[in-house]
Design goal:
Strand order of the largest sheet: 3-2-1-5
Distance between the termini: 90 Å
Number of strands: 8
Order of helices and strands: HHEEEEEEEE
Strand content: 25-35%
Shape: elongated
Radius of gyration: 29 Å
Structural class: alpha+beta
Largest sheet: 4 strands, antiparallel
Number of domains: 1
Number of helices: 2
Helix content: 40-55%
Length: 165
C-alpha cells in the first residue's frame, strides 16, 4: 500500500511541469508572430505620423490666418525649412512658434506661394495668402513613401489631400 501511494505521488510530480523543449517551441512561435507583425505596425505608425503632421500643419495655417485677421496685420507668415523638416509661425521675421515634424515625416516642398524664396507663405490682413495666390505643402512618409498635401487656395481655404494639386 505504501508503494502505491508513492507511485501516485511521483506520477503527479512528473506530469505537472513542462519540458524545456516545449517551452523553447512556444517561445519560438511567439517570436515568429512578433517578427511578422512588427513591420506592419511600423507602417501604421508612419502613416499615423504623416496624417497627424498634415492635420497639425493645416490647423496651424488656420490659426495664423485668424491671428492675422484679429490683429489686422499682414506681418504674419509661415517659413518652411525643407532641410530640417520644420516650419515657423512668425510675426514679421520673429518666430513665435517652431514645429518640428516627426522623424518619419519629410517636408518635401512648398509650391505656388508667391514669395522671393518660395518657402514662405505670407498672409494679408484678411487672412488670405499674399497677392491672392494659393499653393501647397507636400509631406511624405519616409517608410511607405506616401504623400499628403496641405492645400491653401487663393481665398485662404485650407484642406488636406492625398492627391497632388
Amino acid at each position: 500500500m505504501c508503494n502505491l501511494n508513492k507511485d501516485i505521488f511521483i506520477n503527479k510530480l512528473s506530469s505537472t511541469g513542462h519540458s524545456l523543449i516545449e517551452i523553447v517551441i512556444v517561445l519560438t512561435i511567439i517570436g515568429l508572430i512578433i517578427a511578422i507583425s512588427l513591420p506592419s505596425f511600423s507602417k501604421t505608425t508612419g502613416s499615423y505620423n504623416l496624417d497627424n503632421s498634415a492635420r497639425l500643419l493645416a490647423s496651424d495655417i488656420r490659426s495664423i490666418q485668424q491671428t492675422a485677421i484679429k490683429n489686422e496685420s499682414s506681418n504674419f507668415n509661415m517659413l518652411f525649412s525643407t532641410a530640417y523638416d520644420r516650419y515657423y509661425l512668425r510675426n514679421g521675421i520673429t518666430p513665435y512658434t517652431t514645429v518640428n515634424l516627426p522623424s518619419s515625416v519629410r517636408l518635401v516642398s512648398v509650391n505656388g506661394f508667391v514669395t522671393p524664396n518660395n518657402n514662405k507663405m505670407g498672409l494679408a490682413a484678411n487672412g488670405n495668402p499674399y497677392n491672392r495666390f494659393g499653393g501647397h505643402i507636400s509631406l511624405q512618409d519616409r517608410k511607405t513613401g506616401k504623400f499628403l498635401y496641405v492645400i491653401v487656395d487663393s481665398l485662404g481655404r485650407v484642406r488636406v489631400s492625398e492627391t497632388s494639386p
